[in-house]
What we know:
Strand content: under 5%
Largest sheet: none
Structural class: mainly alpha
Amino acid sequence: MAHCGGSPVGAVKLLVGAIASAPAAPEPYAALAELWQDRRPELKEGLGGDGSLSAVAAQAYFFFLDGDMDDAVMTLGSVTGVRPDVAWGAAPWFGDARFLGAVSAAALAEACLRTLDYGHDLDTDEMREHFVPWFHALDVVSERNPVPESLAAMARLPRACGRHELSFALCDRADAVERVVWTAVARAATWRVLGDLDQAATALERALRLDSANWSLYLDLADVRAEQGDFAAAASLVEQGLVYNPHEVLLRAAGAAYRTRLSGSSEDLSTLIALSPELADTTYRNLLIDYACAGPKLPHGLVAEAHRIREN
């Protein structure tokens, strides 16, 4: 700690910097373990409430040292979500049998979701290489503790990395235990990424058979039908979803867009324009506007108004 003025917190930050440079090297972890053993009260006080990347990365390892594998993996997931360009999962403890044998499927699933929080592009060869330890953990934990809902959530990470076969394998493993709606949704999402809309629709129809009162499933399937060019089916599915949630703005906006595309209804396009400010997802909003403005014989002024919303 001579380089840190005797500060254990400063030493932690230096060691995490070394880990970021060489995540698989064991030496910084050995030094962190020694600090945790010798200076725990000071570290707890100094790192408590510190949300910096270095503090959170160290805390993930300290959770592991204390045998709290669930908090360890979820914390590492948060760190990875911020800096996926660092192969944090290459840490020796992340592949340790004690960790893989104790971490719960629910915690690993939550960690996977946290890696996706910041929307980084993970579908590259470099990212796939960085996430190899995560893929191994998914395989081990999903076999040991095959909780279907957790496996469905886990499937999002390999899908984001372009490892579609692993995403499907997790769904297969979940279905072998029990068929649940979220596994079908996970399958549909992967098929959609792959561009197979027929398979995506089949999976969503299966999800609806499992949960026929879920309005979001009707919207998901309606969006697939719209992507296939079947706007009549899309509008009908939205209407079915509105039975279960008549005030949901996403359903109302999608229904207005799909009806406009079918009939060229000025009233429906005006409805979509009025609802647009309530649509937080601007990509989806713009897609609905594009669909609607391709409807037949719409007034040019109304179309221009919709396009202005799209451009803002």
